[in-house]
Each structure stands twice: as structure tokens, then as C-alpha cells.
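Table S2 (continued). Query chain:
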Amino acid sequence: MDKLTAELKSTANEKSIKLESGDRLVDDVLTYALFPQIGLKFLENRGNPDAFEPAPTAQAPVAKADESKSNMPKVAGDSEVYTLTVNGQTYVVQVTEGGDITSVTPVASSAPTAAPVAAPVAGSGDPVPAPLAGNIWKVEVSTGQQVKEGDVLVILEAMKMETEVRAARAGTVVSVDVKEGDSVQVGDSLLTLA
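Corresponding output:
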């Protein structure tokens, strides 16, 4: 604990982070020890509410479906009908007052389908996408490095769990698009493999 306290105090001095004092310093040290990257970001921005997500509020209402266009049966007074779009597919959903879903009907899409994604230019390589949203815990490869199928490329941290992103095939790392501590969303390019 003494070693972690000294390490945190040193880092706090370098980055001008104001730590708690007295018995409350232990909370800051434990936050840093358990979550080195995210905990440090928290401690840096503790007094800045704009650095964090806003507190949850009542959810915005979901747009109601135009019931005159729906082919679903009308149930007087005890259900609501909503139109939801999931991954480009539209569904009409009927929900009863207690929250039970009584009917889900796919709607034929009248929107044109998206154009297919262009294949990467020959020699440029294939991007390796993030399989989930999280923070980059560790980058295990560097540009120009040869990798074999199954080698660990990047370790993501999400919800206190580490996830290894492995090479789907052998190749050469053309570029590394992230660094340790970066936040990524699902599908963001982590690196390019040729």
C-alpha cells in the first residue's frame, strides 16, 4: 500500500492532480490500484462534471408507430405500438401496459440497402476491428511486426474484464491505430494487418 501511495503521489504531482487528504487518500490509492488508467482519468477530472457522462434522466419517449399504417390488431386501452429499427431492419412492436411484448412484426424495408463496403486496396491490409467497446489496456504488437494466426494483438478492458484480440490470420502489422488508454467503440479499427 505504501508503494502504491508513493506512486500515486508522484503521478499526481507530475499531472497536477489534487488528491484527497488524511484517511480519504486511501480511497484514491485503491481507485488507482484497481483501475490504473480509468481511475487516473477519474482522479484528474473529479472536479469537472463536464468530463463525465450526464446523470441518467427519464428516457426520451420512443416514437409511436402510425397505427393506421400498421397491420397489427388494435387492442383498446391496454397496449402501445412502437416502430423500432435494429441493424437496419424495422419492426412494429406491441407492448402491453405491464411491459410484456405481445407482438413483433418485421416490416419490409422500403429504404435502399447500403452499398457494399469497398474491399481494401491491394497491399494496404485489412483492418482489425474492436469486437466490443472498451479501453485499450495493452498493445502487444508494433508496426512491421510479423504475427501468426492466434497471436494476441491488443488487450481490451471493458467492465473490469480483459479481452484479448487475436490475429485471425498470419500477416504483417501495417499500422497500429490505437495506443494504451484509448477508448474504442465496436468496429473501430485497432490496427491494420496485411
